[in-house]
From TrEMBL, chains A, B, C:
Signal peptide: none annotated. May play a role in fatty acid biosynthesis and insulin sensitivity. This is Enoyl-CoA hydratase domain-containing protein 3, mitochondrial. PANTHER family: ENOYL-COA HYDRATASE DOMAIN-CONTAINING PROTEIN 3, MITOCHONDRIAL, PTHR43602. The lineage of its organism: Eukaryota, Metazoa, Chordata, Craniata, Vertebrata. InterPro entries: ClpP/crotonase-like_dom_sf, Enoyl-CoA_hydra/iso, Enoyl-CoA_hydra_C, Mitochondrial_ECH-domain. GO terms for molecular function: hydro-lyase activity. Its main location: mitochondrion. Keywords: Fatty acid metabolism, Lipid metabolism, Mitochondrion, Transit peptide. It comes from the Eukaryota. The keyword Mitochondrion applies. GO terms for biological process: fatty acid metabolic process. The keyword NAD does not apply.
Length: 252, 252, 252
């Protein structure tokens, strides 16, 4: 289990270019190790993340620098969905703009009930168009558009109802509930989870029939994994499975 | 109105290959008859369906057999969406893995408030990748992913809020409410419903402008149906329409 | 701020061809003027809109006329999403069929708590296939399908939970809450909002990676706008931004 903690509360955990680069590195480190099973992203202080560092986005830095910032940001957000382990956001406070995009990009997201979520870029003349890629794919269109056009925050409860969050709990239980979900994920076989996560991302971008064709093949491949067969045998024999956590086929 | 009842409660209504084949046959029988207007799928016993029969998925059966199981399963699930009459799931109990996929695949789904829904395959080393095709298109992504990664069941109420179900009622009213919806569907013209159901599936897989082009043509075709004109005339004349339930055009 | 009021309550604000044409004209008038920042669509009387005028859809008018009706309707609905200013629906009453489609097509939608939403075409032999294009992209599939197959109305609260509405308020506060949201939108820079709205529609029709590529470029373009830089400078200098509302780049 890897914990990544946004650790610049004085700057409201702004996703500066260096913060994004360090996040990318933290996510990628040993990501292919059989020992890594889940990543939790949380933050120090009352703001989960306020999004991009606006001081980096003035005309002084110039178009090329701006391009690099958004390119790196998109890399981090898509990386979260593409790495072979689930990434859990644990939010205790305010998540705005690219900070809200980060929450939307995680596979699972828990928040304390005092947390709020907003895309207020429109108020500072920078419409949250890249956050909208993640948020527009997490919540219904009209929810996303009202957030984008008005900048008005939504509560943790609204975020839960609309699909931005997986679970909302009182602040004092946030850590324990997050760890409980992380433990459940760690209790599963790593290659099985990796196969399933990749298959999910792939099939969701396909039409229904292509999705069934690709997912059906994944099921058969999953059954050929040593851990796939171990799980089924353990179930039939009414015992706990013993995972190898390795990408090995039954007949390898 | 056709009732299909999963009838192997001793095996938790597992979707074995033979159960899937029989389901496919039950759905297809006389599916083009003007007398068939709606199909209801329900189950005997406290488990709606526990999904695939794991005993069929051991390495003893081999890759070819596994492929056939998932191919048949995808056929049944897509058939439900492609037949010309609405298919209603009536769930009273636990629906897991491919059993949950079956609920997600139906056009309308009612459940008693004690029912629960889960994709626990990850716990037995077989990630619910094919159930995810149907569930990921029914509920928000993060809801689907938490179900898939943790295997934790969601309640009927959560399933309703997130779009997996159309209605949740107390157990004692489940049958009556389901029949009431089925009766409403039977009160409509069969070719009108068939045209609309097919158009819905098609346009949802298209981009917005192509969707409007195809759906607009469907509206014009619908108006050319004898039952389309009968409905509008009846409305204008303030009387009940008398449907032919046949695919006939006004000028045929 | 432009108010468009459906003003034929005696005919339940039916979207006749002439009503659709006048709606199209109202939306397009001066739509490129820097002074226009938001459009509000509301209605006189207890019915927001009952949808198409069925008297225009009898076989007497013929296929060509029907085609023109649905073509014009699709134009209006897509225009709402494509014009450079947000369009807000303010609903106080019943919105059915193409009337419900109109609500689903707006960027933001508020309704009084007594409002209801339905697609009852199936009951008069005309399945709501074109309304389904907008509604199927606003709410979960099963919610859309139950509405389409049964024609049963959903409440404003259900519409809110499922994403058809942005906000539900008591009737006496509907006007004030709608104007408050409209004012917020008017407080933002017009070219920033226009860029963001167009980017949202575009990226939502793309795959994730293409969406990030196009949205990232939009962010950089937004930063090159005079109003983009003014907003960021104002934020850093802790003052209110002064928008030009004009499409001008910093280095123009």
């Amino acid at each position: 289990m890897r914990r990544i903690i946004l650790n610049n509360p004085r700057k409201r955990n702004a996703l500066s270019l260096s913060m994004l680069e360090s996040l990318r590195e933290d996510i990628l480190t040993d990501v292919d190790s059989p020992d890594l099973r889940v990543i939790i992203i949380s933050a120090e202080g009352p703001v989960f993340s306020s999004g991009h560092d606006l001081k980096e986005l003035t005309s002084a830095q110039g178009r090329e620098y701006h391009t690099r910032v958004f390119h790196t940001c998109a890399q981090v957000m898509t990386l979260i969905q593409d790495v072979p382990v689930p990434v859990i956001a644990m939010v205790n406070g305010v998540a705005t703009a690219a900070g809200c995009q980060l929450v939307a990009s995680c596979d699972v997201a828990l928040a304390s009930d005092k947390s709020t979520f907003a895309t207020p870029g429109v108020n500072v003349g920078l419409f949250c168009s890249t956050p909208a890629v993640a948020i527009g794919r997490a919540v219904p269109r009209k929810v996303a558009m009202e957030m984008l056009f008005t900048g008005t925050p939504i509560s943790a409860h609204e975020a839960l109802v609309h699909g931005l969050l997986s679970k909302v709990v009182p602040e004092e239980r946030l850590e324990a509930e997050t760890l409980a979900i992380a433990q459940r994920v760690c209790g599963a076989s790593r290659p099985v989870v990796a196969l399933g996560k990749a298959a999910f991302q792939r099939q969701m971008s396909q039409g229904r029939d292509a999705a069934y064709a690709s997912a059906s093949k994944v099921m058969v491949d999953n059954l050929a994994l040593r851990d796939g067969q171990e799980g089924i045998r353990a179930f039939i024999e009414k015992r706990k499975p013993v995972w190898s956590h390795r990408v090995e086929n039954v007949h390898d």
